[in-house]
């Protein structure tokens, strides 16, 4: 496995020390040297398991033996700590992503000097407050995390990846990885590189193991860069170039997302730190990716939009206006937005609601001009009322025409019968199969009805009482299929039976009981 | 076969439930309209048989037909059918105890605009919309909007179908009367 290759290469450097490792980890998290790691992270620990074994063999790190899950836990823990510093707003708590990756993301943000998420994430600031003066800061930050051996190990791992082997790997994945991940990785790798270079003079490039882990996918693109540029400068250049846009995009996406939910405080973050932005974006992207492919897809366009919209850091501001319509699909924690579960849930909910509103807007004519929920709802209500009034009016008209229905039945029937006949079979046969015929009481029968009544219909609840009450002594009566000539009565019966059947099926589908089909003799 | 889809509203944050497909598309297909027309005819004939030719009965029949055409996939359709059913039971002389769903908290938290005025307006309107759509009174905002979209699409189809039916009938009646008059 490539990972192992990397391991071998960098393991020696791992002993640099916990803090540095942690730092590198954190930094690495941003930068994806972990493309491999990402794999491990993303896919539930498959790779981690490999990693673990490989690591343990290579390095006697305490956490190496921890199962994949533990790794993530450890990392998550570390991330959390780093996150507090870095405030990687985007990175939702590990719980969200269910992997340390998330936390990794946050950490790297803090550590790498560029971690500043351009102001998008005010929270970050609050947390990490780490404008990230430089790698040193990262290093400093990491020290607290040194406590976690697993983390250190990971960091080392990541860094290893980032530093060495990625050169080859990176090439493959390259930037073409359009996904957010690629962007993320690039940013991450950038950061990692920077961090590494500045941070420790160690060879171990601090790639963002966490981040890549999150993305697991081939976000290697970033890593590729990372691996290639061992030197921070070169890396940074590259990452900047590559990741810049990604970051910008991500940042934008994040900021947009955040803007919606939380006021963007980003003035601090704004300092153009593309890498940071990327990292944050990467982080964000990663979580998003973990969330689901669809999210990624959605995010992609989003992030791209965001990026295109403008790298200005001021995005964090009110995201509402600039927020492209597609944004609401994502749940990803965006830059500058809170990543705690509540706000995320809140954002999801809001996005869902706005999505539905858009749907309604398309449906109701004249809603495009108005903006704002209240006005739109006004329009919708008016439209629904007008439609209902029309239905009433038409029903009055039809009622007046009804006596002529029979007369015209012959005329209408032929063309309608086709449809009816076409549909009836499907309706009727199912009726045979399973449904309790519940006639609409053209002649309500006392017993059955009372049984029904006593069951106290529950409108919302299951139809169990209804259906059980409907179970009457089977009077098997196949729906009269033969009587199409006698259209009226037949159709009348079938209509009711069909109605009941459908209702029961729909309402009682949860109950898989098969009811004997009964048709109450009508009339 | 009949496909029943119970729509669940997942409000869990992590679970992002994407709208499967716009409801109006389902309602605008010709198949649906034809299905509705046939059902409407059945209902009308049944109503005629039962001597219930008042406009209200016709409207009820039409609404039931519409709800039936919805195949029970939407909440409002189920509510309409149940309402009709319980009404029949009531007419039968039974006592229906309908257990209403516990009243939910009023429509969600503020829309996020940060202005209580707007939030209140929106909430009021959402509640009004809930009253308009059958069976959606105490519903969450998201599902309410979803139901409303489906209901609007269904109503549009219903109006269209009824209008054409009325036109056909009146045209047939006119021609029929004319013919009869002549003959």
TrEMBL record, chain A:
Keywords: Nucleus, Transcription, Transcription regulation. Transmembrane segments: none annotated. It holds the Pfam family HLH. It is found in: Nucleus. Residues 249-259 have a biased composition (Basic residues). Residues 195-327 are annotated as: Disordered. One of its GO terms (molecular function) is DNA-binding transcription factor activity. SUPFAM superfamilies: HLH, helix-loop-helix DNA-binding domain. Residues 227-239 have a biased composition (Polar residues). It comes from the Eukaryota. InterPro entries: bHLH_dom, bHLH_ZIP_TF, HLH_DNA-bd_sf. Residues 337-387 form the BHLH domain. Signal peptide: none annotated. Residues 208-222, 280-327 have a biased composition (Basic and acidic residues). The keyword Transcription applies. One of its GO terms (cellular component) is nucleus. Belongs to the bHLH protein family. PANTHER family: BHLH TRANSCRIPTION FACTOR, STEROL REGULATORY ELEMENT-BINDING PROTEIN. This is BHLH domain-containing protein.
Automatic annotation (TrEMBL), chain B:
GO terms for cellular component: nucleus. SUPFAM superfamilies: HLH, helix-loop-helix DNA-binding domain. Pfam families: IBH1_N. It is found in: Nucleus. Residues 1-32, 93-121 are annotated as: Disordered. InterPro entries: bHLH_AtIBH1-like, HLH_DNA-bd_sf, IBH1-like, IBH1_N. One of its GO terms (molecular function) is transcription cis-regulatory region binding. The keyword Nucleus applies. Residues 93-106 have a biased composition (Basic residues). Residues 33-86 form the IBH1-like N-terminal domain. Gene3D superfamilies: Helix-loop-helix DNA-binding domain. One of its GO terms (biological process) is regulation of DNA-templated transcription. Keywords: Nucleus, Transcription, Transcription regulation. The keyword Nucleus applies. Belongs to the bHLH protein family. PANTHER family: BHLH DOMAIN-CONTAINING PROTEIN, TRANSCRIPTION FACTOR IBH1-LIKE 1. This is (wild Malaysian banana) hypothetical protein.
């Amino acid at each position: 496995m490539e990972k192992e290759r990397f391991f071998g290469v960098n393991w020696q450097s791992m002993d640099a020390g916990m803090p540095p490792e942690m730092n590198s980890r954190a930094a690495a998290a941003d930068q994806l040297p972990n493309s491999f790691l990402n794999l491990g992270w993303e896919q539930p620990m498959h790779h981690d398991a490999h990693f673990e074994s490989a690591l343990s063999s290579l390095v006697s790190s305490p956490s190496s033996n921890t199962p994949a899950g533990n790794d993530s836990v450890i990392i998550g823990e570390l991330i959390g700590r780093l996150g507090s510093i870095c405030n990687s707003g985007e990175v939702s708590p590990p719980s969200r992503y269910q992997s340390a990756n998330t936390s990794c993301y946050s950490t790297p943000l803090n550590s790498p000097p560029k971690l500043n998420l351009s102001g998008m994430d005010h929270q970050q600031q609050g947390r990490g407050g780490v404008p990230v003066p430089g790698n040193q800061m990262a290093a400093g930050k990491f020290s607290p995390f040194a406590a976690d051996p697993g983390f250190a190990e990971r960091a080392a791992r990541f860094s290893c990846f980032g530093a060495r082997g990625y050169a080859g790997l990176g090439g493959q994945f390259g930037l073409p990885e359009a996904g957010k991940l690629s962007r993320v990785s690039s940013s991450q790798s950038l950061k990692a590189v920077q961090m590494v270079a500045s941070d420790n003079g160690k060879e171990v490039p601090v790639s963002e193991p966490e981040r890549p882990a999150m993305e697991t996918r081939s976000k290697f693109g970033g890593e590729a860069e990372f691996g290639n540029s061992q030197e921070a400068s070169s890396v940074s250049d590259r990452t900047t170039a590559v990741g810049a846009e990604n970051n910008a995009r991500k940042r934008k996406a994040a900021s947009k997302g955040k803007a919606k939910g939380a006021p963007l405080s980003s003035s601090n973050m704004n300092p153009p730190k593309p890498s940071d932005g990327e990292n944050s974006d990467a982080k964000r992207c990663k979580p998003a990716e973990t969330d689901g492919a669809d999210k990624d897809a959605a995010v992609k366009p989003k992030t791209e939009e965001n990026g295109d919209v403008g790298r200005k850091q001021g995005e964090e501001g009110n995201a509402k206006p600039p927020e492209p319509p597609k944004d609401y699909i994502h749940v990803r924690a965006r830059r500058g937005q809170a990543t705690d579960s509540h706000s995320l849930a809140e954002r999801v909910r809001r996005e869902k609601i706005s999505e539905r509103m858009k749907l309604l807007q398309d449906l109701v004519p004249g809603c495009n001009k108005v903006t704002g929920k209240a006005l739109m709802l006004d329009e919708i209500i008016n439209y629904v009322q007008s439609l209902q009034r029309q239905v009433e009016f038409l029903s009055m008209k039809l009622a007046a025409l009804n006596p002529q229905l029979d007369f015209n039945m012959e005329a209408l029937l032929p063309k309608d019968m086709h449809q009816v006949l076409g549909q009836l079979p499907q309706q009727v046969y199912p009726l045979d199969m399973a449904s309790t015929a519940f006639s609409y009481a053209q002649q309500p029968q006392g017993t059955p009805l009372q049984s029904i009544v006593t069951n106290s219909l529950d409108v919302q609840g299951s139809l169990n009482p209804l259906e059980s009450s409907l179970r009457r002594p089977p009077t098997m009566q196949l729906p009269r299929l033969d009587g199409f000539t006698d259209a009226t009565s037949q159709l009348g019966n079938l209509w009711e039976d069909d109605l009941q059947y459908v209702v029961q099926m729909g309402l009682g589908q949860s109950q898989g009981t098969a009811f004997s089909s009964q048709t109450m003799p009508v009339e | 076969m009949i496909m029943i889809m119970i729509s669940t509203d997942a409000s869990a944050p992590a679970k992002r439930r994407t709208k499967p497909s716009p409801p109006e598309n389902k309602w605008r297909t010709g198949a649906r309209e034809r299905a509705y027309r046939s059902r409407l005819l059945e209902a009308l004939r049944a109503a005629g048989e039962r001597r219930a030719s008042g406009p209200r009965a016709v409207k009820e029949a039409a609404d039931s037909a519409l709800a039936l055409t919805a195949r029970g996939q939407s909440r409002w359709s189920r509510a309409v059918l149940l309402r009709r059913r319980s009404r029949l039971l009531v007419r039968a002389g039974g006592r229906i105890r309908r257990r209403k769903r516990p009243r939910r908290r009023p429509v969600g938290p503020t829309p996020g605009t940060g202005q209580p005025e707007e939030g209140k307006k929106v909430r009021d309107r959402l509640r009004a919309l809930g009253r308009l759509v059958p069976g959606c009174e105490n519903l969450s905002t998201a599902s309410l909007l979803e139901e409303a979209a489906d209901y609007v699409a269904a109503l549009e189809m219903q109006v269209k179908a009824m209008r054409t039916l009325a036109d056909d009938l009146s045209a047939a009646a006119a021609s029929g009367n004319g013919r009869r008059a002549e003959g």
